[in-house]
Amino acid sequence: MRPSDNINKLIKKLNVKAGPELDQRVHDDISKALAESKQTQPAPTGPNIWRIIMENKITKLATAAAVILIALLSITVLDKAVTPAWAIDETIDLLKEFNGMHVTGTMLNEEGKEVSFEAWARANEDQTASNHLRLETETGEIDVVSGHRRYQYDPATQTVKITEGYGQAMGIWFGADFFESLKKIVLDWNETYGKDPATDRDRVFVTCSHPAAPGPRSFWFEFDVESKLPISFKQWENMVREGAPSFYVKSIKYLDDLPDEMFQFEIPEGARTIPALAERNDKLQDPDSGMLIGNMTEEQACEEITRRYWQAIIEHDWQTVAMLCPISIAQQWENKYSGSNFEEIVEIKGLHQEDGYTIVPCTIRFDRNVIRTINTTVVFRTIDGQQSCVIANTWSQDWD
Amino acid sequence: MLEDKLLIWKFNRGDREVLRRIYEKYKDDLLTLATALLYQKTEAEDVVHDVFCSLIKSGSGQKLRLTTSLKGYLATCVANNSRNRNKANAVHAGAGLETARTIASDAKSPDVAAIFGEELRFLTYSLAQIPYDQREVILLRLYSGMKFKEIAALESQSINTIQGRYRYGLEKLRSLMNGEVKK
């Protein structure tokens, strides 16, 4: 091969390393400018961005603490009485200040294989859920939810599925409201005090479980005592924290906010886009699905289809569930809900419109007298001159 | 790319501390580009320093409204600064051709081999012999990964002109490198 054939490769190989002198010149100038800026400008009134835990100050304190404690402590799990005070209420108060988070961890994919991921999320206005999420996996999948639009990039098929009218990216937000509700509703909140062996920082480990979140779930949270913030989290789809966690967040960094740009999606070069709305619409337009309205008013029809749907789930009648909510087949509904302990419908109340969709809240009693309200989205259609309705999706942000 | 978006966002919110991260992330790329344009490492270091000085001095009121990537934006700054220096050097040396010869000669010197390595000696020698405008387009395109459209905007030229420079420059580069092998 001639050298000219390699021009592109050779040019990419060009590499000149910046030396320590240049480093010092630039860093000194930045330091000088920052110092001048502090002297000449009033204290910044804007938001204090990137308040990330594990700042230098905390690290220094941890080092000092390690020196003092090293002669006294040789075990990692400590007596609660000798550790710094921590209460979930302090965490709850603090979490109200943060609207963004960055997490890394692993989750089990559909085949049960562990996949690493990194995600950024922004809380909605009342910090109860998230409508903005960006999740990237080690295998190259990218999932971005921005408001009511969702992009799902699959590098294997080089496709981007774009779903319009998407619901919430996360039905819960790991903020003040979540921990406040969790403490009230879980069955076995248990706090253990200990230390992080790597940094010697004080930690609180909380375990708890819930029979219908939906389905049985157990949790493990790790809180940093000094910062008061949760720093890692595990979730199992059983009540006893058995087997590999379905979701393991190894690091959580709470942020004041995140920019809109984080939730913009650029279609990768060569990728094909798939309009997922059409796909979902096709399913929702299936003439064999749904419930005929007949003489009912729209309000009555909404309540009736919601009642039939949840009753079918309680009775494990997966064919009826799939007929009323045709976005998945019966087997998929069975896989999703067969482990859940739905016991009875308590009430169907509070029908309202949201972004052009009809939402029907349904309150359900689960095993061990746990009560939850789940929103049901109802869509109306006219097929062959007959008006009918189907359920498009269900979601919940109410834990109590 | 995502980190860059966050860095720009923080910069635009007045956080000048992020310049440290931006510098650390791109310093080698920018210094390489400037060195390949100017063939003077000391001057290339001044270029990179100048680019960051202008960002530092831009004050908290200035925002980066980028139409390209952060890397592309910084490469543009380096290219602009290098071009100005090249013009000033050409005027100082008195003649463009003479300057080109000096650069080509410099490019063959052991110093340049020490900077870029023996493996790239042919390439750097050949690059030094093609006109500055063509060299700049080739480096911005192939080294910095900029699009023709972005380079055209940087140089206030049409895309056709930029593509022409790229094509002619590459042909000349190929010819020079093949010739060097025959010798």
Major sheet summary line of chain B: none
Question: Given the structure, what is the number of helices of chain A?
Answer: 9
> H/E order of the elements of chain A?
HHHHEEEEEEHEEEEEEHEHHHEEEEE
The oligomeric state is heterodimer
- Under CATH, the topology of the largest domain in chain A is which? outer membrane lipoprotein receptor (LolB), chain A
What would you call the structural class of chain A? Answer: alpha+beta
- The CATH architecture of the largest domain in chain A can be named as Clam
Q: Show the largest interface.
A: A-B, 37 and 49 residues
Biggest sheet features of chain A: 12 strands, mixed
Q: What count of helical segments of chain B does DSSP give?
A: 10
Secondary-structure topology with pairs:
The complex is a heterodimer of chains A (400) and B (183).
Chain A (H helix, E strand, L loop, with lengths): L6 H7 L6 H21 L15 H14 L18 H8 L4 E9 L5 E10 L6 E8 L4 E5 L2 E6 L4 E6 L11 H10 L4 E6 L6 E9 L6 E8 L5 E7 L10 E9 L16 E4 H9 L6 E2 L5 H17 L3 H7 L5 H8 L4 E7 L3 E3 L2 E10 L4 E13 L2 E13 L2
Parallel strand pairs in A: 6-12
Antiparallel strand pairs in A: 1-2, 1-11, 2-3, 3-4, 4-5, 5-6, 7-8, 8-9, 9-10, 10-11, 13-18, 14-16, 15-16, 16-17, 17-18
Helix pairs in contact in A: 4-5, 7-8, 8-9
Chain B lengths: L1 H11 L5 H21 L2 H17 L12 H24 L2 H13 L1 H7 L4 H9 L2 H12 L4 H8 L3 H24 L1
